[in-house]
């Protein structure tokens, strides 16, 4: 049995892999535990790591740092790639507001840390350490420690005390934000609102009766020439203007193109964003009451000669190609009404750059759609192959970008985005624009989730293992109790205040609200819980919208406080 004991105790690469895998397995097994339907999920991996470290289980420090940092890098990069396609549209629609709200969380938390060191005997470095733990932001801790040692290289003990304070506050920061997510869900339900996001930037389908004399006898190209709002005319019903508007008398449905002439009394089916329906009504005329946005509409029975199908872009050479350059409408007589990318519907335009994995909604005759499908690929099995080249290129660029020092006037130490900020920014850019540079960044949702979960699990295992020694000795002391209370308050108060403001005054939906709060607190665990409470990825979009800015500002804030106040 000596060989087995040596396998767990001798610090080799095999021992490191074994210990981290054991911690992950135990934590994931415990993640199935639920109390009144609520579970901490993958957070148990962190607690399992703390227990392992407390009872003396340790691995080579360099192997520990490698596992922990690589796990974090893999998680944030995969998250960035997943939300990249929808990141910039969300930024245009509500990203500024979300980032301002996230800034409010940062300001309140930082103010509390400064007040704590003023009214208690807790030192500023420890108070900042508690804040980094409550905000579950280890890059912020690293930035603060680096700045402290730059000022005073002899302050190694103080730096270690900051790390212990962060370890004390970290689990309560994780739990605190989850508690806030639960409370916000209760608030929304109490107000009679559904805890599900309504996408104002999603496509909305409306039927209009052409009754604007200004467009009578004009082509669609002429009508749309001076319209700033993007919209798509999907179908046109051609029939006598004196006929009734009943379904039986609608006449023939055609697939319009730019040369289609609209006449008085004809009906048009228009796709645009919901807030822009009023603009479309002023353009075309009377809005008809039929609801075309129900999920159970059978589009293939609107007219027997036309069908509506989803076609996937799977041919590699089309990655980054402009939709207008393919001339699909003129060549095959079809109409592309929507492009679904990463779960977000995009209105097509001639300048839209296609990405492998895009799902196009095409209306036309079945034979024509079959021909278009052969042009685009439409081979779902091709999407199952992982694009590892783009993954590793993205990781390389993300690490390099995070290591770039940004000099700020008046500060002796440059600012770095670090291993969390750099990869997520590059991941977002790769997900949004990688196709234009020839990178195929598409991965299936399951593959992306696997990458994120593996990265996060390994990161938490390493973080818990490093925080385990001395953790309980600190917690079970009067000073430790005070640290715990302060950490809980730092984690909950800013989140609840900003969450209430976002709900009450900004009318932010539950999904966007909790995603923003999780991003502001750099809390992927709470994000995972938030995702379990909604049916889509909207919290992830909000998370990624505020995370890069929030991470950058927290790193800067930590460094500035240490440089100015210590």
What do you see in this structure?
Helices cover 56% and strands 10% of the residues. It is an alpha+beta fold and 566 residues long. It has a domain at 203-381: Regulator of K+ conductance, C-terminal domain (Alpha-Beta Plaits). A 5-stranded antiparallel sheet has the order 4-3-6-1-7. A 4-stranded antiparallel sheet has the order 8-11-9-10, covered by helices on one side. β9 and β10 (344-346) form a beta hairpin. It is elongated, with a radius of gyration of 27 Å. Residues 194-201 have low confidence and may be disordered.
Describe the structure using short key phrases.
Alpha-Beta Plaits, single chain, 566 residues, 11 strands, 5-stranded antiparallel sheet, 4-stranded antiparallel sheet, alpha+beta, elongated
List the helices and strands and how they pair.
Blueprint: H1 2-9, H2 13-30, H3 43-54, H4 61-119, H5 124-134, H6 138-151, H7 156-190, E1 203-210, E2 218-219, H8 220-224, E3 232-238, E4 252-254, E5 261-262, E6 267-273, H9 277-284, E7 285-287, E8 307-312, H10 328-332, E9 335-341, E10 344-346, E11 359-364, H11 366-376, H12 388-402, H13 418-433, H14 445-467, H15 471-475, H16 478-504, H17 510-520, H18 524-531, H19 538-565
Antiparallel strand pairs: 1-6, 1-7, 2-5, 3-4, 3-6, 8-11, 9-10, 9-11
Helix pairs in contact: 2-3, 2-14, 3-14, 4-5, 4-12, 4-13, 4-14, 4-16, 4-17, 4-19, 5-6, 5-7, 5-16, 6-7, 6-19, 7-16, 7-17, 7-18, 12-13, 13-19, 16-17, 17-18, 17-19
């Amino acid at each position: 049995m000596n060989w087995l004991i040596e396998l767990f105790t001798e610090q080799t690469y095999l021992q490191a892999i074994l210990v981290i895998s054991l911690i992950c397995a135990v934590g994931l097994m415990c993640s199935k535990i639920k109390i009144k339907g609520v579970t901490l999920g993958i957070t148990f991996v962190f607690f399992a790591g703390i227990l392992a470290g407390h009872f003396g289980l340790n691995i080579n420090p360099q192997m520990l740092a490698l596992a922990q940092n690589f796990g974090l890098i893999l998680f944030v990069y995969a998250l960035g790639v997943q939300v990249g396609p929808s990141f910039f549209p969300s930024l245009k629609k509500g990203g500024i507001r979300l980032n301002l709200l996230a800034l409010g969380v940062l300001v309140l938390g930082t103010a509390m840390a400064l007040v704590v060191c003023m009214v208690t005997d807790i030192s500023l470095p420890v108070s900042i350490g508690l804040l980094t733990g409550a905000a579950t932001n280890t890059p912020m801790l690293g930035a603060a420690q680096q700045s402290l040692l730059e000022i005073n290289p002899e302050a190694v003990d103080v730096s270690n005390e900051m790390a212990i304070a962060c370890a004390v506050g970290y689990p309560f920061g994780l739990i605190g934000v989850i508690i806030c997510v639960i409370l916000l869900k209760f608030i929304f339900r109490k107000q009679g609102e559904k805890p599900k996001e309504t996408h104002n930037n999603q496509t909305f389908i409306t039927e209009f009766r052409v009754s604007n004399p200004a467009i009578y006898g004009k082509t669609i190209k002429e009508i749309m020439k001076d319209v700033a709002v993007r919209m798509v005319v999907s179908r046109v019903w051609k029939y006598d203007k004196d006929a009734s508007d009943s379904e039986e008398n609608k006449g023939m449905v055609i697939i319009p193109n730019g040369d289609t002439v609209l006449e008085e009394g004809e009906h048009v089916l228009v796709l645009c964003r919901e807030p822009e329906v009023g603009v479309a009504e002023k353009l075309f005329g009377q809005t008809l009451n039929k609801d075309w946005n129900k999920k159970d509409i059978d589009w293939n029975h609107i007219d027997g000669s036309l069908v509506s199908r989803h076609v996937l872009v799977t041919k590699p050479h089309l990655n980054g190609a402009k939709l207008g350059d393919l001339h699909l409408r003129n060549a095959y007589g079809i109409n592309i009404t929507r492009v679904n990318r990463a779960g977000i519907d995009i209105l097509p335009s001639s300048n839209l750059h296609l990405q492998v994995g895009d799902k196009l909604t095409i209306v036309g005759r079945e034979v024509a759609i079959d021909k278009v499908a052969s042009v685009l690929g439409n081979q779902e099995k091709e999407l199952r192959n992982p694009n590892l080249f783009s993954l590793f290129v993205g990781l390389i660029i993300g690490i390099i970008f995070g290591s770039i020092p940004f000099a700020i006037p008046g500060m002796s130490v440059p600012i770095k985005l670090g291993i969390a900020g750099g990869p997520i920014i590059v991941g977002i850019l790769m997900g949004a624009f990688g196709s234009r540079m020839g990178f195929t960044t598409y991965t299936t949702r399951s593959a992306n989730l696997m990458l994120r979960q593996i990265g996060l699990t390994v990161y938490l295992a390493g973080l818990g293992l490093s925080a385990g020694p001395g953790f309980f000795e600190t917690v079970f002391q009067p000073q430790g109790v005070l640290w715990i209370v302060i950490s809980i308050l730092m984690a909950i108060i800013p989140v609840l205040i900003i969450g209430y403001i976002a709900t009450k005054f900004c009318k932010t939906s539950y999904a966007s609200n909790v995603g923003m709060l999780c991003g502001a607190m750099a809390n992927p665990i709470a994000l995972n819980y938030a995702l379990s409470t909604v049916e889509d990825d909207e919290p992830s979009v909000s998370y990624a919208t505020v995370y890069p800015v929030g991470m950058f500002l927290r790193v800067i804030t930590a460094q500035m406080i240490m440089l100015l106040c210590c």
